[in-house]
Amino acid sequence: MDRILRQVLTAVGALVGLGVVLRNHTAWSAWPMLHAIGHAREGVLIAAGLVAGGLVGYLVGPILVAWATRAVVWVESRLQHTPTQDLLSGSIGLIVGLVIAFLVGTDLSGLGPFGTILRVAITIGFGYVGLRVSIRRKDDIMRPQSWLPARMKHRNGPESIKPKILDTSVIIDGRIADICQSGFLEGPLVIPAFVLEELRHIADSADVLKRNRGRRGLDILNRIQKEQNSVQIYEREVDPNMEVDSKLLKLAKILDGKVVTNDFNLNKVAELQGVPVLNINELANAVKPVVLPGEEMVVHIIKDGKESGQGIGYLDDGTMIVVDGGRKFIGQTVAVLVTSVLQTAAGRMIFAKLKSQAGVEAEAR
């Protein structure tokens, strides 16, 4: 291959040398020595051009090819690690910048060499600016619906039909399947490929607990796909250098969708970035029945509390009830009266006291 390449480069160099000789024939023929040769000067010039061009192609050609090969390999490696969205948006911005530069530099041809230099500078400048601006605004460029006016956005559909992007934690949690089955989530459910990859890694973990959680998440996904017709797998890579949570938020901006999660930290980060979030824990707290102080309920005491004499019980929805004086009734079902309700970020706690104790206090009053 090297020998064939050298032969090809030598032939190309010879042809280039011949072209240079023929193009500058007038200047060469003005030399007195060549003029004295007479009619043989054309042959001398042609032979000299072929020999010089072939020699340059034979010696310099392989070096140039090696440089070009290394440059192509470097550019290819950089392009492989560049996200597809950056490539698309950068190409669009570069094309727009070059078109603007062409329109601006059309009237500069009459300035001579200075006009040519100015046109080259304008082309490079506008091309670079278009490339940089388009990469920085790639989220808006790759989201065409953001170009429309607010009225047209409203005509195209209400906000409730935005795609819902599922987080890994909410899939493992499992309650999302029941919520989807109940019909409270409208619009397409988007499952990113990087979330599936994370679930697969969890399911293949050496830790038994993690492995069971990962397999549970995969089972939940299979159930959702069987019951819902609007499940979509997003195969495109967002940005390989980002973490999963950052990818989710970026994908939500690209698709103009909402992230469905039960991760408290992800919820806060999404609020800071202006990404709408549907938190399953907030939904669970919102649909819990309202309990007011003074209401009576029946609780099964299962363990003692932190304070002296307290007993702990739970409602069917998982709400913890702290019963004052319920420690001695562990393992029994007792009637209690609600004294106060405490709402926290982690959930809701109900404080109560035994109904018999409340009756004794009332009689004492």
From TrEMBL:
<dbReference type="GO" id="GO:0016787">
    <property type="term" value="F:hydrolase activity"/>
</dbReference>
<keyword id="KW-1133">Transmembrane helix</keyword>
<feature type="domain" description="TRAM">
    <location>
        <begin position="290"/>
        <end position="351"/>
    </location>
</feature>
<keyword id="KW-0472">Membrane</keyword>
<feature type="transmembrane region" description="Helical">
    <location>
        <begin position="87"/>
        <end position="105"/>
    </location>
</feature>
<dbReference type="InterPro" id="IPR052041">
    <property type="entry name" value="Nucleic_acid_metab_PIN/TRAM"/>
</dbReference>
<dbReference type="Pfam" id="PF01850">
    <property type="entry name" value="PIN"/>
</dbReference>
<dbReference type="InterPro" id="IPR002792">
    <property type="entry name" value="TRAM_dom"/>
</dbReference>
<protein>
    <submittedName>
        <fullName>PIN/TRAM domain-containing protein</fullName>
    </submittedName>
</protein>
<dbReference type="InterPro" id="IPR002716">
    <property type="entry name" value="PIN_dom"/>
</dbReference>
<keyword id="KW-0812">Transmembrane</keyword>
<keyword id="KW-0460">Magnesium</keyword>
<dbReference type="GO" id="GO:0004518">
    <property type="term" value="F:nuclease activity"/>
</dbReference>
<feature type="transmembrane region" description="Helical">
    <location>
        <begin position="117"/>
        <end position="135"/>
    </location>
</feature>
<feature type="transmembrane region" description="Helical">
    <location>
        <begin position="47"/>
        <end position="75"/>
    </location>
</feature>
<keyword id="KW-0378">Hydrolase</keyword>
<keyword id="KW-0540">Nuclease</keyword>
<dbReference type="InterPro" id="IPR029060">
    <property type="entry name" value="PIN-like_dom_sf"/>
</dbReference>
<dbReference type="Pfam" id="PF01938">
    <property type="entry name" value="TRAM"/>
</dbReference>
